[in-house]
Amino acid sequence: MLTKEEVLRPLAGLRSDAVVVTTMGIVRPWGRISQSELDFASADSAMGHAADLALGIAIAQPLRKVICLNGDGSMLMTLGTLASVVEAGVNNYFLFVIENWTYEITGNQTIPGAARLDFVALARGAGFKRTYRFDDSKSYAETLPHVLSGEGPVFVLLRVEPGSEGPISRSEREETAYLKVSIAESAHAMRRSLCLNVRAPEP
């Protein structure tokens, strides 16, 4: 089983100028590693829609990779997103699902279907071009460059140890930069960064 650190460190080293959308129990751990204005915490209301938001960004920014770090509880709430991603035809979309079988930030309640639901099978059935499943750090770190270098949409399931992140607030009490400001301010910052760093088409 992976730790959050084992998941996030290699990804941070390879993300380049990709947009990274995080949610719920992975928001703070990612913010401790990355301070990019291309990071966005989708962790206020509307639980389950981080993957939808990332899809919208991928459609709007077709020349830039968009990575969503989703939770299994959040993914379960919006399984229709899997079909929407494939229907949209985005090849720059990378959906990572952190599977710990709990709703971590509300008290680690067990999600429905824990240990039984197969998200990888669901992603394949929806039509994702490439799907992966990892539960050990060595194979994950070795394969991640290949995962990110190919064409999407890509689905990655990561079996991760349960954590103890509590409810998220947006205030100066938070140590992570993108939680110190409102969700609107964070969105404006990312938009400015995207506008300043427009990617040119490949020759």
Q: How would you sum up this structure in a few lines?
A:
This protein has one domain (4-195): Thiamin diphosphate (ThDP)-binding fold, Pyr/PP domains (Rossmann fold), CATH 3.40.50. It is 39% helix and 17% strand.
Rg for CA atoms:
16 Å
CATH superfamily: Thiamin diphosphate (ThDP)-binding fold, Pyr/PP domains
Instruction: Name the shape in a single word.
Output: globular
Task: Give me the CATH architecture, please.
Answer: 3-Layer(aba) Sandwich
What is the helix content? 25-40%
Largest sheet: 6 strands, parallel
Distance between the termini: 41 Å
**Overall tally of domains:** 1
Query: Which fold name corresponds to the CATH topology?
Result: Rossmann fold
Into which percentage range does the β-strand content fall?
15-25%
Quaternary form: single chain
What is the average of the pLDDT values?
Answer: 90
Structural class: alpha/beta
User: Are there runs of 5+ residues with pLDDT below 50, and where?
Assistant: none
